[in-house]
Amino acid sequence: MQNQEIRQETVAKGKPFDLGERLLEFAVGNVKLTARLARTVAGRYIAGQLMRASASCGANYQEARGAESRADFVHKPQLVLKELREAGYWLQLAGEAQVLPGKELESMRKEADELTRIVVKSVLTAKSKCR
Fold first, then answer.
1. Domain that holds residue 87
2. Crossing angle of the two packed helices 41-65 and 19-34, in degrees rounded to 10
3. Domain annotation covers residue 5
4. What contacts 59, CB < 8 A, 6 or more positions away?
5. Distance from C-alpha of 131 to C-alpha of 124, rounded to nearest angstrom
6. What CATH number is given to the structural domain containing 71?
7. Interval 7-66: pLDDT, tens
8. Residue 63 lies in a domain
9. Host H or E run for residue 125
10. How many domains are there within the chain?
11. Using DSSP, how many helices (H) and how many strands (E) does the chain show?
């Protein structure tokens, strides 16, 4: 089942949107994607970078949920944003270098973009509330 179908099902069941779960799904999707990358020097390098960046998104989000100060509460989502942008870059590079062409790659790129937009709004909101 695609991420969007899962989200629609969740909303239909009346469950709240959970960014942490979505970031976890993003990391899992990228781990599965990297398992199919070409076993070349470039493929292994891109796979490692993509896995680190996408896994870091969710980890930093979880840390933000336990922020120790207002400044920390603003800083951690900015790290999530930084890692999402990096993951998006590695996904784009994988496509451009054709180490993994396909629909799933495009799906993950779209998810990275959607998550980036969500986190940008969260960062802006957090910053405005801390002034």
1. 16-129
2. 170
3. no
4. none
5. 11
6. 1.20.1440.60
7. 555 445 566 679 999 999 999 999 999 998 888 999 999 999 999 999 999 999 999 988
8. yes
9. helix 103-129
10. 1
11. 5, 0
